[in-house]
Amino acid sequence: MAATNGDRSKLPVLFFDIDNCLYARSTKVQELMSELIDKYFAQHLNLPDEEAVRLHSEYYTNYGLAIEGLVRHHEIDPMEYNAKVDDALPLESIIKPNPELRQLLQDIDRSKVRLWLFTNAYKTHGERVVKLLGIDDQFEGLTYCDYSAVPFVCKPSPDSYKRSMRQAGVENPADCYFVDDSYNNCKNAQAFGWTAAHLVEEGIKEPATKASQFQIKHLRELRDIYPQFFKSG
């Protein structure tokens, strides 16, 4: 992560989600992850494939993370799960450096705002993604879902927003800005007092009701909705 200079604690913070936000859904990382999760359910719970898919969906719907249902109801080792699912993804052959994204981040004026990563994945996955994108030096820190600490604290739980603020060193929710591809994450961020932008990529069905203050199709639109944070000219 990027080094910091001087007292920047009074600056607002712009929080970025990682998966399906810093890279496009067209990479199919989400589909690959779902396949690995289904496989994990089937093998470790000794379930038929169809039941594994159903239970995976049920836990994701109920808890926001499939792994939380596994830990709550089946006492699986969450770090083993992480090794077999997130860390097993062949990201090196899928995610490549993104010069356009890097330029967008470099155009943000760091004397006006701090950049922070905020993901429901474990830290190894989050760090791997931003390194592969070539942007790991653009953020001051990372708030992640700690799979080794039960119960989990993850978006869209209010406690997750509190924790990210504490870790990023920002006290006032009004100083928190956010972009995420999840409807519920953006909705709850706004309810918590943050200013949120819901990323709905081109080709994805738009929600009937907006999740939060802003809805965008591409990260480049951050220049338009958060112009106060970008370098002039």
From TrEMBL:
<dbReference type="InterPro" id="IPR052791">
    <property type="entry name" value="SSM1_domain"/>
</dbReference>
<dbReference type="GO" id="GO:0009166">
    <property type="term" value="P:nucleotide catabolic process"/>
</dbReference>
<dbReference type="GO" id="GO:0008252">
    <property type="term" value="F:nucleotidase activity"/>
</dbReference>
<dbReference type="GO" id="GO:0006206">
    <property type="term" value="P:pyrimidine nucleobase metabolic process"/>
</dbReference>
<dbReference type="Pfam" id="PF00702">
    <property type="entry name" value="Hydrolase"/>
</dbReference>
<dbReference type="InterPro" id="IPR006439">
    <property type="entry name" value="HAD-SF_hydro_IA"/>
</dbReference>
<dbReference type="InterPro" id="IPR010237">
    <property type="entry name" value="Pyr-5-nucltdase"/>
</dbReference>
<protein>
    <submittedName>
        <fullName>Pyrimidine 5'-nucleotidase</fullName>
    </submittedName>
</protein>
<dbReference type="InterPro" id="IPR036412">
    <property type="entry name" value="HAD-like_sf"/>
</dbReference>
<dbReference type="InterPro" id="IPR023214">
    <property type="entry name" value="HAD_sf"/>
</dbReference>
